[in-house]
Amino acid sequence: MLEIHKSIVVDENQKPIAVQIPIKEFERMEEVIENYGLAKLMDEVADDEPVSVQEAKHFYGSLKRDVKS
C-alpha cells in the first residue's frame, strides 16, 4: 500500500480545509490513478474488433484533417 505523509491545513476555526502531501507522493498517486484508468480503458475495448494498419492510418488522417479545419 502507498504510504501518504499528509499535513492537514485548518482555518481559524480549526476546520480542515486542505491537505498537503510531498510532491513525490503526489506524483506516485497520479501514476497509480493513470495506470488504473488505462487498465479500465483496455478492459472496455478488449472485445472490440481489431482494425488494419491501413484503417488506422485512414482514421488518424481524418482526425488531423478535422483539427486543421
UniProtKB/TrEMBL annotation:
Superkingdom to which the source organism belongs: Bacteria
Pfam families: RelB-like
Protein name, as recorded: Type II toxin-antitoxin system Phd/YefM family antitoxin
Organism, as annotated: Desulfoglaeba alkanexedens ALDC
